[in-house]
Automatic annotation (TrEMBL):
<keyword id="KW-0411">Iron-sulfur</keyword>
<protein>
    <recommendedName>
        <fullName>Type-4 uracil-DNA glycosylase</fullName>
        <ecNumber>3.2.2.27</ecNumber>
    </recommendedName>
</protein>
<keyword id="KW-0378">Hydrolase</keyword>
<dbReference type="InterPro" id="IPR036895">
    <property type="entry name" value="Uracil-DNA_glycosylase-like_sf"/>
</dbReference>
<comment type="similarity">
    <text>Belongs to the uracil-DNA glycosylase (UDG) superfamily. Type 4 (UDGa) family.</text>
</comment>
<keyword id="KW-0004">4Fe-4S</keyword>
<feature type="domain" description="Uracil-DNA glycosylase-like">
    <location>
        <begin position="86"/>
        <end position="236"/>
    </location>
</feature>
<dbReference type="GO" id="GO:0006281">
    <property type="term" value="P:DNA repair"/>
</dbReference>
<dbReference type="GO" id="GO:0004844">
    <property type="term" value="F:uracil DNA N-glycosylase activity"/>
</dbReference>
<dbReference type="GO" id="GO:0046872">
    <property type="term" value="F:metal ion binding"/>
</dbReference>
<keyword id="KW-0234">DNA repair</keyword>
<keyword id="KW-0227">DNA damage</keyword>
<dbReference type="InterPro" id="IPR005122">
    <property type="entry name" value="Uracil-DNA_glycosylase-like"/>
</dbReference>
<keyword id="KW-0479">Metal-binding</keyword>
<dbReference type="Pfam" id="PF03167">
    <property type="entry name" value="UDG"/>
</dbReference>
<dbReference type="InterPro" id="IPR005273">
    <property type="entry name" value="Ura-DNA_glyco_family4"/>
</dbReference>
<keyword id="KW-0408">Iron</keyword>
Length: 253
């Protein structure tokens, strides 16, 4: 009698699992993984071998599916919305770059940082001998706001489940926060002008706030040279920290 009541309780109550757990359970089924420890599975996925690469490809496709079905805020229904924009790059990278949200070009192509600001970001990485494909690049929100306005707090909150899913899988050591929106995502009430270049240690991440590439493009003359130098310093410090914490990871090949 008691046993039947217990069974009945499990069939009538819906248990909501975190998205990361659902994804890893699907991964276990897909690849017949016997281990059930989340940390062990995530560590195995990051290994530099063909099996782990296939698992990362599977997880990345599932992340994109998860983001593409998101209707947690009304940005997806705006006239200017064409594609949701998931992050892209290496799920095993110790370094993640986070911007604000998609712009016009990103919305049209469904890829992050492909417009003028994205081209500048790629140039910075190339000058540091870092292949863009060897880091993970994403945004706080995944849909373009109208007229590229700053995302509202309710939109950031609604979309946070998507960013958190990415971060839960990657478990980066270092994050470069590109601009005020990602900075405030991790440390609310912050000013990018005051806190740029100063390390923030939050949730086991080392976070380096710096100016968004779009901000660099809006500068001129001596101010432009100064801002470019500051961002260059911030990137070098962040990359050095990532290499220090994960010396085995190869950013250039």
């Amino acid at each position: 009698m008691l046993e039947s009541k217990i069974k009945e309780s499990f069939t009538t109550v819906e248990i909501s699992l975190p998205d990361i757990i659902k994804l890893l359970l699907d991964l276990k089924d897909e690849f017949n993984i016997q281990n059930s420890d989340v940390d062990t599975i995530v560590k195995a996925v990051k290994l530099d071998n063909e099996k782990s690469k296939k698992q990362r490809d599977y997880l990345y496709n599932r992340i994109k599916e998860h983001i593409n079905t998101c209707q947690s805020c009304l940005l997806y229904a705006q006239e200017n919305h064409t594609h949701k924009v998931a992050g892209e790059g290496a799920l095993n990278s110790p370094l993640v770059l986070i911007g604000e949200g998609p712009g016009f070009d990103e919305d049209k192509q469904g890829r992050p940082f492909v417009g003028r600001a994205g081209q500048l970001l790629t140039t910075i990485l190339n000058k540091m001998d870092i292949r863009r494909e060897k880091v993970y690049i994403t945004n706080v929100i995944k849909c373009r706001p109208p007229q590229n306005r700053t995302p509202l707090q309710k939109e950031i909150k609604a979309c946070s489940k998507n960013l958190e899913l990415e971060l839960s899988l990657i478990q980066p050591k270092v994050i470069i926060a590109l601009g005020a929106v990602p900075l405030n995502y991790f440390k609310s009430g912050s000013s990018i002008m005051r806190e740029r270049g100063q390390w923030i240690n939050s949730r086991d991440y080392w976070i380096m706030p710096t100016f968004h590439p779009a901000y660099i493009l809006r500068q001129h003359g001596k101010t432009l040279n100064k801002v470019k130098w500051l961002v260059w310093q911030d990137f070098n410090e962040a990359v050095a920290k990532a290499k220090e914490m994960c010396p085995e990871y190869d950013f250039s090949s």
